[in-house]
Fold this protein.
Amino acid sequence: MAIIEVDEESFENELLSAFERKDNVILKFGSTYCDACMALGFELEELDETLDNVTILEIDCADSEELAQKYEIVEVPTLKIYKDKETPIFDGVGVVLAPDIAKLLE
């Protein structure tokens, strides 16, 4: 599955579709002007190439301020990982390496 760039309009539909497929969901909150966000993006691309049951949604906080507020984003990049709607398994700030994310999803 590709990394999907979402905004406030498309976010809920993409999120619900991912949960319906029983995918693990990764939310990456970032900014186009953030070097660490770009580095995290490379890690997520690597992860996306190796795992099948993952949906990665990328949210630009400058374009989607309401989503950033809803998810209490205070720093970028922020990564939130869910096994299902009810089970967040990771919430962290900064660059996380692809192998470390893969271990969380085992």
Notes: Strands lie at 3-6, 24-30, 54-60, 78-84, 87-93. The radius of gyration is 12 Å. Residues 11 and 20 are 14 Å apart (CA to CA). The helical segments are 11-20, 35-50, 65-70, 98-104.
